[in-house]
Amino acid sequence: MTDEMGKDQAIPRRNVGIFAHVDAGKTTTTEHLLYHSGRIRALGSVDSGTAQTDSMDVERERGISVRSATTTFTWKETSINLVDTPGHVDFLSEVERSLRVMDGAILIVSAVEGVQSQTEMIWHALQSLKIPTLLYVNKMDRVGADADRVLRDIEKQLTGMAVPIYAPLGVEDTFRGAENVLIEGASGAPGFDLAAAVEKLSELDEQLLTSYIEGVPIPAREVKAALKRYARQGRAFPLLVGASSKGLGIEELMEAILDYLPGPSGSAEQPLSAVVFKVERDKTMGRMAYVRLYEGAIRNRDTVLNATRGVEEKVTQIRKIDGRRAEDIGYVAAGDIAAVCGLTQVRIGDVLGRPDAVPPAPRLAVPLLTVQVHAESDAQYPALVAALQELTDEDPLLDLQWLQEERELHVKVMGAIQLEILTSLLASRFGLQARFDQPSVIYKETPSQAGEGFIAYTMPKPCWAILRFRIEPGAPGSGLVYSSQVRADQLLAQYQSEVERRVPEALQQGLFGWEVTDLKVTLVEGEHHVWHTHPLDFAVATPMGLMQGLVQTGTTLLEPMLQVRITVPEAYGGKVLSDLVQMRASFDPPQLSGDRFVVEGRLPVATSLDYPVKLSAMSGGRGVITSSFGGYQPSPPDVHAERKRRGVNPLDQSKYILAVRKALST
Q: Do residues 334 and 297 touch, judged by C-beta distance below 8 A?
């Protein structure tokens, strides 16, 4: 075992995520990477449902990726963990979780459509995490492919440091591959040649800049060495071209993974530091946690600390998951990814061991719709709750809420496609026929002005908790900022910790029943009693004090917005502008791109739920709308949206105290 462990650590590795807008060709590219590396003997197909990384029934039926899938292949004695992520915006949470555990990325851009909304969103997330990235322009063989236009798009919308390392040979039906421009004697084409690479890299490298200004020829090997250095730092981005469906550009992409993306750091000898980025349920092994190790190692039968939950659990098996296959490997070390069995309490995002080596999580996915789920019969509700809980374990953003007294089930979703997938999953995996209501928009609230909330919870005894909160509006997008000005001699630290823990819970329902956000809450006064205070008195008092404060400040309703880009034939431009005005959109002056009318702007989710379908019907299927979350903004005064409150309102203090104390006593 020891020899195997040492050998395993000696293998060079890459952990690479593959990302793109929907239909840019991620899964097809992954399939060809596996085939050309010799990992699989026959090519699968997205359309026929035989792709290695589309393992769920619903993925094979619909030809789209719903969950991220991990696979492994070896190229030139380097082991590459590749994570194929969904492209549809409804499954952005899967992309978000995968981003966290990658050392490098491949961002695919369609040579026909160019940079699209999700491409841009993922790019900014990659940049914020400083993840070195390869840009791969796919579908060069398709009608309408234009590498020059896509390069201009990338330079305008993503980065000026995209460095083409291959020049396309032909285009559309004449595309036959790519020429390496970083070798001596290569010709390339304007923008896709050695001179273009030198010009861009000279912005980062003083030595190259001096040679460039003085007109001194720079050997291709020096340019490549400089690009390797800056690409691995995430400061320059090699750009490749290909047609994955025909296998063109695939080997070049594998070479670029080795050349330009960094290997993982970390040591197996250090104490464990790892993060769970995916959870699945296996029929024989139960819950499987996909884990990326940054430091340390895990062996079969190890007891590991879940630092997030504060529990220790025993590992029963460590599996290497490869598409639809799995093998027990018994050991996984720093820099690698594996599925760990036996951790029954683990959740997505949990840190195993010490947290200091784990990078922060990005935040891309924001569910904007809530929907009620109905079982086929009352007798099926327990089974439906259990099934949805299992799916929530796999995707925490579903945020399942089961209101037992009202017999109501609610989940949060990103869009209509996700609802279709949930319906299909409940039927195929759990044998349940569930019905979803029409989704409704998730609004939020924010304080309208500054104010104070005070509560003296001293009856019925024994109890004693006195709190005063200052509540102030915060900047848009700032969320909740909490602090305390109360000294520990006035209110014990353990009681202050309880207040701090309860504040976010208490703000889940404001005056209109929506989550309260973008506010600053400061505890300015606190008092306990030596004899009468019970440790949970502050759990009761905090919601009452905060709701009292919100009555003083009032709250403003916030509605979710979409950042949209609409492209239609020029003839439909006037109708689109009229629709946007009716939907209360704000938009930039429209532009003409060839015979296409393009307009970008911000659109309320509430007024545009069915607009993609309407646009397609109106334009004969030739209109395209791409969207991403555009934040929350105050609703107009004539928009009223109130949600039914769950549980007793803390403003009805007598009833609330009785309800909560009864719960505490049981």
A: yes
Q: DSSP characters for 492-514?
A: -HHHHHHHHHHHHHHTTS-TTSS
Contact present, 421 and 58 (Cβ < 8 Å): yes
DSSP class of residue 641 equals -
Task: Render pLDDT for 454-484 as a digit per residue (tens, 0 to 9).
Answer: 999 998 888 899 999 999 999 998 999 999 9
Query: What are the residues whose beta carbons fall under 8 Å from the beta carbon of 382, sequence distance 6 or more?
Result: none
Write the secondary structure of 75-100 as one string of H (helix), E (strand) and C (coil).
ECCEEEEEEECCCCHHHHHHHHHHHC
- Cβ neighbours around 368 below 10 Å, total: 22
Secondary structure of 330-386 in the HEC alphabet?
A: CEEECCCEEEEECCCCCCCCCEEECCCCCCCCCCCCCCCEEEEEECCCHHHHHHHHH
C-alpha dist (Å) from residue 164 to 55, 194, 198:
34, 9, 11
- Residue 441 CA to residue 425 CA, distance in Å, equals 23
The model's pLDDT over 252-272, given as tens digits with 9 standing for 90+, comes to 999 999 999 999 988 999 999
pTM of the model: 0.70
Please state, in angstroms and as integers, the Cα–Cα distance from residue 666 to each residue in 161, 610, 655, following that order: 62, 47, 17
The candidate with the shortest Cα–Cα distance to 487, out of 476, 479, 495, 498, is 495
CB 217 within 8 A of CB 258: no
Q: Which of 588, 589, 551, 590 is nearest to 570 (CA)?
A: 590
**Distance in angstroms (rounded) separating the CA atoms of residues 182 and 194:** 6
The answer, yes or no, to whether the previous bond of 460 is cis (omega within 30 of 0) is yes
- Distance in angstroms (rounded) separating the CA atoms of residues 347 and 116: 32
3-state secondary structure of 456: strand
Alpha carbon distance 195, 199 (integer Å)? 6
pLDDT in tens, 399-458: 888 877 677 888 988 777 788 888 888 988 899 999 999 888 999 999 999 999 999 999
